[in-house]
Amino acid sequence: MDSHAKSRLQVISNQLNSGKDLKLQQCSGTDSKYRYTLDNPLLSQEQRQFYEDNGYLVVKNLVPSEPLQDYVDHFQKICQGEASAPLLVVMRDVAIAKSEFVPGEKAVTKIQSFQNYEPLFDYCRTPEILKYVECFCGADIMAVHTMLINKPPDPGTKTSRHPLHQDLNYFPFRPADRIVCAWTAMEKVTRANGCLVVLPGTHKEPLKKHTYPDWEGGVNKLYYGIQDYDPSLPKIHVEMEKGDTVFFHPLIIHGSGANKTTGFRKAISCHYASSKCHFINSNETVSPETGHEILQLARKRVGDDVTITLPDVWKLQSRLVQGTNYNFTF
């Protein structure tokens, strides 16, 4: 375990041993006419109502090409072992993991938890993105989950698919309405290379039970899916150009299809939350199996000698990007 992570986790351990409780604070709401957005002059009336009704919003050409290319360059350095950072996670598709060794970026399907790697974390601080995040989270903003996704060409096993799911299944903090994901296409994203699929309006539904789908060829780690959603609900394939960004609610049901092309499909994303969100007991989640697996993975990274809870895991990989950190402190 690296010294940076051990130092922060020692703080956790000391506080747990001393019985110090977290101070929980609720987030303030907005005009009763709106639930999912906050009063902010940036969103047009049409955009605001679209998000209220559908749970997602696409903003065209929000992130310039130059920083996106920088992120690709740093992704390649990480894949080649030339760069790293505390707590950063490098993941491979289950089909690749079971095959012969593949070198470089072709072996890596996702970089996760890059909050301590400054060149990639710059994405989370993009001013154009944060302006929109304020419309959903308010002025005090934490980056709580970071990913650079390198969806691989599907080898025929369909393991490059991501089952339909709700992101709130992974997050032990509330309220859900003050959480939003920003997902930016790093190249043209189409149905052919596995664009996002959303079920509009499902952000108004409660959190559903998530389990691993019974897919031939296996399924990637923590790729849980909903088994009892209504298959007759309309689905929207969110095709995007390079630099387009989609913002979506953590309860909207979404996933992505298989990459049927010969190239990798790249996207970068960050989940944001108001720092005034409060943490809940992991037993309150619909899928305790998810929390248990997240804790198992965390203990592999930080060692079994430190007591750690699910809220601790999320605090450890969260980072303030704007305003004041209220409840994501140790």
Automatic annotation (TrEMBL):
GO cellular component, one term: peroxisome
InterPro entries xref list: PhyH, Phytyl_CoA_dOase-like
SUPFAM superfamilies, per database record: Clavaminate synthase-like
Pfam families: PhyH
Any GO BP annotation: fatty acid alpha-oxidation
This protein's UniProt keywords: Dioxygenase, Iron, Metal-binding, Oxidoreductase, Vitamin C
Domain of life according to the entry: Eukaryota
Cofactor(s) essential for the protein: Fe cation; L-ascorbate
Pathway assigned in UniProt: Lipid metabolism; fatty acid metabolism
GO molecular function: L-ascorbic acid binding; metal ion binding; phytanoyl-CoA dioxygenase activity
EC numbers for this chain: 1.14.11.18
Classification via PANTHER family: PHYTANOYL-COA ALPHA-HYDROXYLASE (PTHR21308), PHYTANOYL-COA DIOXYGENASE, PEROXISOMAL (PTHR21308:SF1)
Family recorded in the similarity comment: Belongs to the PhyH family.
Full protein name: phytanoyl-CoA dioxygenase
